[in-house]
Amino acid sequence: MNRESNAEIFNKAVNKVPPAQISYRIEWLEARKLKAENLTPYPVTGNGMMPMLNDGDYVMLDSSRTTVEDHKIYGLMVRGEFKIRHLVAMGNGDLITYCSYVHATKNNEVIKKLKIKKDVLILGLVVHRQGSV
């Protein structure tokens, strides 16, 4: 059986979305110690991270920052599906993911325990959001 890698699955998902045109000033990037080549915009879908992130917003992921800093927000592939979630690293290699939206109880979305590398590919830290108020 030929299984797709997480990166291949993510690339297919990204290719379904029209590319975002998001510009940043060099000074803004330098002040945050960000490099343009590590940044990828991605659209927010769903309400799991409301009110912080809304359906239709865009987030900018920094692919150089994949080591989990507890309670920060990351873009990740979870069993082939792109998600944006808060993460907490457990000492045993597990991750706890959680939403911002308190009513996101579908499939126990509020808090989930996942195995790094088996269930999850961390794509990058969310370093910026762009969207409506």
Describe the SSE topology.
Layout: H1 6-15, H2 26-31, E1 39-43, E2 58-62, E3 73-78, E4 81-89, E5 94-98, E6 111-115, E7 120-130
Antiparallel strand pairs: 1-2, 2-7, 3-4, 3-7, 4-5, 5-6
Short description:
This protein has a seven-stranded antiparallel β-sheet with strand order 1-2-7-3-4-5-6. It is mainly beta.
Describe the structure.
12% of the residues lie in helices and 35% in strands. The protein is mainly beta and 133 residues long. It has one domain: Umud Fragment, subunit A, CATH 2.10.109.10. The chain has a seven-stranded antiparallel sheet with strand order 1-2-7-3-4-5-6. Strand 4 (81-89) and strand 5 form a beta hairpin. The termini are far apart. The model has no long low-confidence stretch (mean pLDDT 77).
